[in-house]
Records
---
Amino acid sequence: MPGDKSLSHRAALFAPLGDGPARVRGFLRAQDTLRSLAAVRDLGADVRDDGSALSIGPGDFPATGRAAAGAPQLEIDCGNSGTTARLLLGLLAGRRVRALLDGDASLRSRPMGRVVAPLRALGADIAYRGADGRLPLVVTGAALRGGEHAMASPSAQVASALLLAALSSSAPVTVRGCRGARDHTPRLLARMGADLGGWAPGDDAVTLRPGPPLRAVAHDIPADPSSAAFLLGAAALVPGSRVTVPGVLLNPTRGGFLAVLREMGADLAVAPAAEAADGAEPTAAVTVGAGALRAVRIEGAVRVATLVDELPLLAVLAARARGTTELRDAAELRVKESDRLAAVAAGLRELGVTVVEHPDGLDIVGESAGFPARGAANIATHGDHRIAMAFAVAGLASRAGVILDDDACVAVSFPGFFAACAALEGAGSSG
Ligand code: S3P
């Protein structure tokens, strides 16, 4: 399994802040995370790649402070990656650099105001070059002050941007409303020596006091639970299957998918690895076997945050469960790489499933005997990697299969996805 996407972004973006080269093993080589790596290289970081591990050091990475008047403008293409764009905004807001951040059509349509507004309240100089609240925009390093921000809903990207900005501010920055949001950023910054006071996993608020220099730490990136979910989901649906994924990241803020699978009655076993040393993230071997599933209700902003990237797949699983699954409090899905509520509803209807779309969720009438569609279902992926993989799983679990209008988009997060599916096909009892 490929390395975790969130941890790979953070290894690339945070390593240049350390006091020397950091060794990164298990880095995810996918389009999104390679955008973050290219960005820090363009910003002056010393990136070396021996083909298996990376070494990332500060090199000429911009120091804390204001950009010089007339500083040249560096252009950074964030591609399809919201994490690259939003974390870079916080990282660069208080550094000696001027950068234009842009992205593809999907990223240009996604909201940036949720990061830009609280950064401006800290004194950041950010100017939109096109539509308000959207990329492209220019960030010019400014003197940042401290402050507090309460998030409307839990977002790791917003919290991370503010904590990264806090590293170059003159006073502490507090972020509230974090419960449920993935907590990789405070975990990693604490390991690098940042002053996060008494912060502990599960806390709703986090405060970073600027000052302590950060040290270089080794990164051993575990398998991505959000990518593993597609293979585990396929195992749940395809009769006679049993799949084990070893070394999966098992951070509680990423654990919602497995909790819902268990609630749906899946044949699921989680074998945690021994506690990782030096504050590294916990991992487990996860096994799923085929079996009947039942409908569930998924609601609440905190719960939704812990499985937000797995919801397209959960919708496909729900479509083969007994009963009607209700998803609520998930309006955030409308501003991901595509409008995922609309894309999932349309794809499931192509498979003959009855779906009711709500502003913040879906009702999915499960077809436990099999998808009703007689022919292959035509699926519009909207170039969204998780829509493509979720419906590929639906195809594996259907009689006539699916036709995806774009299979290349899986390379955003899981370039080996189709090869992994093919390798599992008929792998046998030891496979
Ligand atoms: C991510 C946070 C999540 C998630 C995204 C990756 C991260 O977004 O959907 O795929 O690495 O911080 P939000 O923080 O906006 O919910």
Note: The chain has a mean pLDDT of 97.
---
Amino acid sequence: MIEKIKQKALAGEGISREEILFVLSCSDRESLKEIFSAAYAVKLREVGRKVHLRGLVEISNICTKNCFYCGIRRGNSAVSRYALSQEEILECARLTQKFEYGSLVLQAGERCDAAFVDFIEDTLRKIKALPGFELGITLSLGEQSLETYKRWFAAGAHRYLLRIETSSEKLYRELHPADHLLSERKACLDRLRDAGYMVGTGVMSGLPGQTLESLADDIEFFRRQKVDMIGMGPYITHHATPLGEKYPDYPSDLSLGLKMIAATRLALRNVNIASTTALQTLAPDGREQGLLAGANVIMPNVGDLVHRKDYLLYENKPGTDENAADTRKNLERAIAAIGEEIEYNTWGDPTFFSAGKESRQRKGM
Ligand code: 5AD
Ligand code: SF4
């Protein structure tokens, strides 16, 4: 099976569901090494050796939802809630320009009220109007109406991240209250495409009740959806959540997170794949390991340290005491140490997006 996977990697062909399952279930060290290096070869050929950075701003931890696994869920009254002012967000955007990251991600808990929608729209226009290098803007602000997505797109955002968390209906229901619907989340991905965004999605791996077959289905879902970006990470227990209370000692699985990256790279090839903070939580060099398994995007936090400890989706999240300037220095060093280089001052869109857009246009979509 490994030989077949390597052959396909060389030939520029995506691996099958059966091969994805083989990658996800592999536990032999030597075989894993071969798999990661095949995924790395595909990454080099399809998207190159350069790492794209996106400055991450956690603009607010106020959330109207109540996902059973997440530390900032509405029901967690121990969280001290905050929302950055527009000036604070603009300051983060200026810092992103100064660091030459080229691109910015605005992330928050989910809110759909008119004041919030207006605030984001206005803030986007102001970020786009900043003097100097024009930042690419990615939003990660949850489920919204088509109208809202369109307004934010018109105001300057061009990418949107919305993880489906799992493609399994059954598991999705176990992880969320009854009014959180996977069908609605999937409909949002369609809405985002209709509004013109480059769309990113992703899942958590190693969740209680999740099988390898279900993860293979997740990758098949990414492939069917023709998504442009993938952000995935291992599930990490937060004890003040229903899932954390039910499974207090549930082990996190770094290796499975890396195998998901490798399998996704081998199956989808020319997409942007993020090496996420959750990997770094499980090992100090977790994000570098993610890059070596096939990821090519890192989202360093550019927010002020004051609020970091209030944005704990899971416990032991790293970087709560490292300021944005130190993060930049440390990242540069870590990336150079694995023989890669940061691509500064670009929006860092994958070739797939433009190709996908053309094919959508051809189909008259
Ligand atoms: N462990 C890992 N990832 C988590 N997320 C939320 N809670 C956890 C957790 N306990 C992820 C979800 C969400 C993203 C913002 O953070 O995938 O989409
Ligand atoms: Fe809110 Fe996102 Fe956490 Fe769910 S995962 S509770 S939507 S911040």
Note: Residues 47 and 270 are 6 Å apart (CA to CA).
